[in-house]
Amino acid sequence: MFPSLPTSLAVLALALSPAAVLADDNAESVSTLDFKNRFVSSGIVPEVIAALDPAVSFYVTYRADDGHSELITPGSSLTVNETSALPLEFSVENLNNATNITAQTRYLIYLLDADAPSRSSPTARNLRHYLAGNYTLNSANSTVLTTAQRLSIPEANRRPFTPFTAPTPDANSGVHRFIYALYTQPARFNTAGFESVGMEAATANWNLSRWRTQLGLGPAIGATFFTIDTGAAANGGSGSNSNNNNTGNAAGANAAGNVEARGYLAGVVALAAVVGALVMV
């Protein structure tokens, strides 16, 4: 038999049981004003998007490295692993604040990298990683934020124009800002593809203004963004001016702290797994 384990390890094993580690995050709502302000403070507005005045709070749920389901809030720092698959869910709050919305309304969602291949030299700016239409309101609410309504695509309409491509920014290219945006979909695209109005499949240097004109879109009704820190680029490498450098450096510092914390947690979880195995044996 194995010797009895120290009480502290036994308590640790109980606290880090699968049910505790995989429990959904205790998420809180973000106001539309906060979304708007964070897009400005990040430099995305007006550097990438001319303006953003969201009518809804738009949320993206991902599975964190520690196993939790968590919301992306504007400016969340994520790892490449955490963004390796389509989000677990999309959801919205305050949908009644958007105009011309009905129960039959469908929605478009995109994901782009604003800083490809780097923020200091974005020669492939607005690299599109995902674009799909035909999202509709789901009868169920978000599994993470119960006040938000889920968006989903019926299986019969699951035809993304740009299938999801996981973000894999180059090492040492600085902090990348990845934007998810939500639009109402013109009814004619309920049955027609975006190529019917001349939209091209090329994903780099996506011209958002031209795309909106082609499809007859209004402004985004909601948007959020996250960052991936690939390490310091040459000359600081995270911004095109001094204000953006400060923003990028701050995001990088936060990302480093998050990575360190996640690494620590992963070690603790591994220790708990060993403890659990010993107890079972």
From TrEMBL:
<dbReference type="InterPro" id="IPR036610">
    <property type="entry name" value="PEBP-like_sf"/>
</dbReference>
<dbReference type="Pfam" id="PF01161">
    <property type="entry name" value="PBP"/>
</dbReference>
<feature type="signal peptide">
    <location>
        <begin position="1"/>
        <end position="23"/>
    </location>
</feature>
<dbReference type="InterPro" id="IPR008914">
    <property type="entry name" value="PEBP"/>
</dbReference>
<protein>
    <submittedName>
        <fullName>Phosphatidylethanolamine-binding protein</fullName>
    </submittedName>
</protein>
<dbReference type="InterPro" id="IPR035810">
    <property type="entry name" value="PEBP_euk"/>
</dbReference>
<keyword id="KW-0732">Signal</keyword>
